[in-house]
């Protein structure tokens, strides 16, 4: 249960779950929706898979993610989203472990 | 394929549910006229059955995934799974509330209507997915 709370505590992961509620999405297409580096995104996916909230299916070179949430977990996601509860400590965030994508430098 | 550990945990949970239902039914039957009003014995058993429906419906979207995935469009399959889970959980909750709160003469009918409406909603949703114009 703590893994589920940990997974739902991060806004990026909640956004991933909301996007997946529309249907299965490929890893690249999903990552394009966020302004974070690929390792950070992979860490987020790993947390969601460990919590049993999503499934990953490899087809050739592409990975498709799909939702695997029970009704209670979905209700919890909605509850956390509505009340904006922050349940995770800063050091647990994958961004802290994997490193956020640095902003691209513009041409002079 | 479902992993062996998941399969055995499902079987364990199903057996625990069955044991709980039989145990409570036996207990209520034992205590019924002397220690519990017959009306409340009926209500407790009804509510317990509703709880089992809620418990199973809650896990429907997780359990059904590998079975349904092979047969239809993944997005449609996922939305049907979610709709099925939600409608049965709400129907089951209605079943429990009906047994606990409705007048005893109407409780059975109200509970059946609640669950029936949930099933009808799911079937209509399936029909809509199958026959809607593309």
Describe this structure in words.
The complex is a heterodimer of chains A (108) and B (134). Helices cover 50% and strands 13% of the residues of chain A. With 108 residues, chain A is α+β, with helices and mostly antiparallel strands. In chain A, strands 1-3-2 form a 3-stranded antiparallel sheet. Chain A is globular. With 134 residues, chain B is mostly helical. Chain B contains 5 helices and no strands. The A-B interface holds A 21-24, 52, 55, 66-72, 74 and B 57-62, 65, 74-75, 78-79, 82, 85-86, 89.
Task: Give a quick rundown of the structure.
Chain A is α+β, with helices and mostly antiparallel strands and 108 residues long. Chain A is 50% helix and 13% strand.
Estimated structural class of chain B: mainly alpha
Strand portion of chain B: under 5%
Count of helix runs of chain B: 5
Count the strands of chain B?
0
Radius of gyration based on Cα positions of chain B: 18 Å
Give the mean pLDDT of chain B. Answer: 85
| Shape verdict of chain A | globular
The main sheet of chain B comes to: none
Topology order of chain B in helix (H) and strand (E) letters: HHHHH
For the termini of chain A, the CA-CA separation is 50 Å
Helix content of chain B: over 70%
Shape of chain B: flat
Overall average pLDDT of chain A: 79
Greatest interface (CB-CB under 8 A), with counts per chain: A-B, 14 and 15 residues
Low-confidence stretches of chain A: 96-108
Helix content of chain A: 40-55%
Topology of this protein?
The complex is a heterodimer of chains A (108) and B (134).
Chain A: H1 2-9, H2 11-20, E1 25-26, H3 27-31, H4 38-50, E2 54-59, E3 62-67, H5 71-83, H6 94-98
Antiparallel strand pairs in A: 1-3, 2-3
Chain B: H1 4-35, H2 38-63, H3 65-68, H4 74-101, H5 104-131
Keyword list:
heterodimer; A: alpha+beta; 3-stranded antiparallel sheet; globular; B: 134 residues; mainly alpha
């Amino acid at each position: 249960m703590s893994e589920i709370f940990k997974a739902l505590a991060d806004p990026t992961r909640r956004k991933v779950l909301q996007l997946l509620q529309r249907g299965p999405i490929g890893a690249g297409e999903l990552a394009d929706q966020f302004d974070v580096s690929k390792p950070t995104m992979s860490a987020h996916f790993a947390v969601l898979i460990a919590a049993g909230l999503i499934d990953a299916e490899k087809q050739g070179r592409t990975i498709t993610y799909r939702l695997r949430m029970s009704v209670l977990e979905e209700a919890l996601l909605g509850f956390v989203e509505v009340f904006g509860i922050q349940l995770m400590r800063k050091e647990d965030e994958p961004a802290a472990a994997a490193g956020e994508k640095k902003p691209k430098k513009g041409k002079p | 394929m479902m992993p062996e550990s998941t399969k055995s945990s499902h079987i364990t949970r199903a057996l625990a549910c069955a044991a709980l239902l039989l145990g409570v039914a036996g207990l209520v039957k034992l205590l019924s006229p002397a220690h519990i009003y017959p009306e409340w014995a009926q209500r407790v058993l009804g509510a317990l059955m509703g709880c089992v429906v809620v418990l199973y419906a809650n896990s429907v979207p997780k359990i059904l995934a590998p079975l349904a995935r092979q047969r239809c469009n993944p997005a449609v399959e996922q939305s049907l799974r979610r709709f099925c889970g939600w409608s049965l959980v709400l129907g089951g909750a209605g079943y429990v509330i009906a047994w606990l709160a409705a007048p005893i003469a109407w409780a059975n009918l109200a509970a059946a209507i609640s669950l029936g409406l949930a099933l009808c909603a799911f079937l209509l949703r399936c029909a809509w997915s199958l026959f809607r114009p593309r």
